[in-house]
Amino acid sequence: MSELSYCTFDTALGHCGLIWNEAEAVVGFDLPPVAEDRLARRTNGRQASQPSPEIQRVMDLVRKHLTGDPQDFRTIRIEMDGIADLARAVYVAIREIPVGETRTYGQIALQIGHPHAAQAVGQALGSNPIPLIVPCHRIVAAGGKPGGFSAPGGLRTKEILLELEGGLAQPSLFS
């Protein structure tokens, strides 16, 4: 396993955290509020690091995105070593969802070749180590329901992220 580094940075929504490996691929991302001790634990007790130009680019994209200037995060290199095959397939699929659009858990299950695995898709999304960059907030339940969101702030954070992207198709989705 390669050595991991992390940093925290300010955004319009608050402090975010970013974890990357020696190859400058993102392995973790935390939405606000960030607990720096949690980031340190995830990087084996390391202290915050100075971001390289590539990691600074990632931070800049996140900052722009969280001010309502939607960014395409597909150019960000991510590392998925140690992630189960089904979860990996889910993450690859949801990274292809365009900004401002949503899909259902069932649609993703069908897309990855497991048409009866909507619950498994939800479980994979609930353990997504790179939310926003791997846009799990773009997955909603069938029938116009919001589904879940395990990042800090729960469904309210999901609603904010979708609103920032212009992807809140139904104003009553989160009412």
Brief write-up:
34% of the residues lie in helices and 14% in strands.
Overall form: globular
CATH topology of the largest domain: Arc Repressor Mutant, subunit A
User: What's the total helix number?
Assistant: 6
Rg (C-alpha, Å): 16 Å
Low-pLDDT segments, ≥5 res:
169-175
Structural class, judged by helices and strands?
A: alpha+beta
Strand composition percent: 5-15%
N-to-C series of helices and strands? EEEHHHEHHEH
Mean pLDDT: 91
Straight-line N-to-C gap: 44 Å
**Which CATH C-level class of the largest domain is it?**
Mainly Alpha
The CATH superfamily of the largest domain is: Winged helix-like DNA-binding domain superfamily/Winged helix DNA-binding domain
* Biggest beta-sheet profile: 3 strands, antiparallel
Number of distinct beta strands: 5
Q: In which range does the helix fraction lie?
A: 25-40%
Question: What is the total number of structural domains?
Answer: 2
Q: What topology, given as strand order, has the largest sheet?
A: 1-2-3
CATH level-two architecture of the largest domain: Orthogonal Bundle
